[in-house]
Prior knowledge:
Layout: H1 3-8, H2 16-30, H3 49-64, H4 69-92, E1 97-101, E2 106-109, H5 111-117, H6 126-133, E3 136-137, H7 149-154, E4 159-167, E5 173-185, E6 188-198, H8 223-234, E7 238-243, E8 248-252, H9 254-260, H10 272-276, E9 280-282, H11 296-303, E10 307-315, E11 321-332, E12 338-347, H12 349-378, E13 382-386, E14 394-396, H13 398-404, E15 425-429, E16 432-433, H14 440-447, E17 451-460, E18 465-476, E19 482-491, H15 493-515, E20 519-527, E21 533-541, H16 543-549, H17 553-556, H18 561-564, H19 573-582, E22 586-592, E23 597-607, E24 610-617, H20 619-687, E25 693-695, E26 701-704, H21 706-712, H22 716-719
Antiparallel strand pairs: 1-2, 1-6, 3-4, 4-5, 5-6, 7-8, 7-12, 9-10, 10-11, 11-12, 13-14, 13-19, 15-16, 15-17, 17-18, 18-19, 20-21, 20-24, 22-23, 23-24, 25-26
Amino acid sequence: MNSSEGLLSDPEPVPEDDFQALLQQMLQSLAAGQALPGRELAAINLQLLGDIRQALDQLQERLSTEVPEEEGDVIQGAAAPQADTLAAVFDSLPAPLAVLDADGRFGRANPALVSAFGFDPTGMGQAEVYAKTSLCLADGNPMNGEASGASRALLGEKVTGERCRFTGLSGEPFDAIMTASPLVTGLQVGGAVVLWQPAGEYGLMQAGSPAKEAQPPAEEASDSQAILAAVLEYLPVGLVVAEGPDGKVRMVSEYAKSLLSSVTPEVEGASWEELLGGWRAFRVDGKTPADIDELPPNRIIKSGERIKDEEWIFQREDGQKAFIVCTGGPILDVEGEIAGGVMTWQDVTEHKRSEASLLESEAREWARAAELEAVLDAVPATVWIAKDPECWVVTGNRYSYEMLRMPSGANPSKTALEGEAPVHFRVFQDGVELAPHELPLQVSAAQGIEIRDFEEDILFDDGLVRHVVGNVTPLLDENDRPRGAVAAFIDITGRVRAERALRESESHYRNLFESMAESFTLQDLVYDEAGRPVDFRLLEVNPAFERLTGLSRDELIGKTRNELTPGPAPDFIERLARVVKTGEPEQFELYSEALQKYLDISAYRTGEKQFAILTVDITERKQAEEALHRAHEVLEERVEERTRELAEANQLLSETNEQLRTEIAERQRAEAALQTSTALFERLFQSAPDPIVLLDDRDRILDMNLQAVSRLGYSVEELAGEPFETL
Length: 727
């Protein structure tokens, strides 16, 4: 009888042991089939009829040598629906699964593994597959073929919890937990089953439920028993295979059993409704309760609906809710009727929490980024960020663009690609222009070193100079290699100008201090134990004071008056103490016996217990005042003598004045008589009946009377000064 006839024949009742054996053998046979490509995670693949028929042919050949022909017909007739079950189980597993032969070659891969790898590894050796997928350990070291979990399983070791990473042809990395179990036939290891579970979902559903300790297979166990045992024991998802209209459980994974047994102790043989009766189910919103008929198991058994990646929320006994992703579908008999169903589920609670946490974290990071951006734009400092070691692209905050006179978002990097680097400014340090690669941001980003308190001058093409100082910190990758840098600088142009002005002012006042003619000293008072001022100490002196005392600065600084001129405290020390106490300046003069000089003292307070004295040597002025006093006395004597002489002269003058007054009176009388005589002569001269001409001693005409003017026909003015002969 061929496989087609066996597939279409009516199934006969089969003892439980034979049914289980057939399932195990069929899974073994399916390992030699061809899986469909594509990302069919957690999907039921019922399109493997050709593979199943091929597996049945292999089963027929094996059974013909091991059982009587009539018994084989019965078994073969019952094998078809069980083959569908095994095909659905193998291909619906959401985690990547592979069966390796004794030589370590991939005998079969489920669709999840084909999707994750991006290719079908069937027929390939471990080394080829590992190289193609860049399979490595969690620490990044390449996977050693001999030390891999699969190789150790082929040596008889059970491997669990081995973290690894591989990259499929899509380029997307896949972090996984590898579980590998040996397939033992008799005393020989004939292969291995390897599972790669996504690392983020490993053991989530089993939290709080200890995994069942694996039992070593009996020596007489077949290869198929070992495969099935390994799949059901290490499968990292819940898997339930049920048959009949009531959905009685016939096969369950240890993962599912550890969860369901807390509600229904006897999982195998129970119906799906019995398994689900102890749980509260909610729709994905977490608030709307779900009726039991709405749940995927009942829909699969009762209507034959295929479920793919359907999310539900189940409430556990402790009140906590779990997010479950279900995938499943019906198992059909040869007539296309529903004979049972298979369903897998994954607890994605942690994944959901991680997603929510990630979203919250992203929101926080975005908020922090927005806050940081606002802070950076608010601070009055320039901030530059380079995200590559060469500083090809540099970004900055608002203040940095304003300071560099560039539009927001422009690239201010001097090492930008050709044609992009700004040219309207240059950078100097201590008067020397810095090359682009010598700039602090570029040095820190290239060498990975921190630079602190770096001062530089930015010279713009219009002559404006900005003085800045700041720090640069490198950005390092996960291998501590530089990947960029962050620089923060503040504009100290005002401070630099102020310091320069201060230095110039200090130099000016230092020159004034050293060149002034007046003596200047800075001193502090010295007190005795009773708190009375008894002396003063020199703290600073100028060259004029050195010239005044004849002592050098080194001989004066730090010395007290008593050390320089021993003797009792001078009377003026009380004045100095009053200046220090009240802050009111005082001025007084004194004569220094030690210096033999007269001094003008101006004292004022400069600090606690300190005072300054401006001393002017007034010896010459005092001497001049004395000479002036003596001269004044001589002058007084001379003034008295002169006064007597003036009094005598005044008496003589009075007498002379009286004589003069008499002479003046006589003269005035003579002048009056003359005037009278002259007037009389003028009247007689003009009224004379005859012409009269007056001549000088040279016979020139002086005057003429009216008769002469009338006779001659000329005026006096016309003839005055003319010789008489002209008449």
